[in-house]
Amino acid sequence: MTTPPPEPTGPQPAPSAPDTQPLLSQRAALVLLTAAFIGTLVGVLTWFSAGNAAGALLAGVTGFGAGTVGLHKLIG
Fold first, then answer.
1. In the 8-state DSSP scheme, what is residue 4?
2. pLDDT tens for each residue of the chain, 76 residues long
3. Which pTM does this prediction carry?
């Protein structure tokens, strides 16, 4: 037979405070949000122009990538 472990005595350590560091900096959030807007705009305009969903998606993703790189260099 096994015996249960003894109950801990004395003060328990306080739970650690949650991390106060944000997941993204304000600059990164601004760059990614603006790049997402640019990519969406490029995709929608391509859809209206060509009527091709695959081409619009490809143009939107390319616009997001180019917007991210451009804004990263521009802001900062």
1. P
2. 688 777 777 777 666 667 688 899 999 999 999 999 999 999 999 999 999 999 999 999 999 999 999 999 998 7
3. 0.71
Distance CA 69, CA 63 (A): 10
Sign of CA dihedral 39, 40, 42, 47: positive
For residue 21, give every residue at least 6 positions away whose Cβ sits within 8 Å of its Cβ, in sequence order, or none: none
In single-letter form, the type of residue at position 72 comes to H
**Whole-angstrom distance, CA of residue 23 vs CA of residue 69:** 20
Q: What is the DSSP-derived secondary structure letter of residue 1? A: -
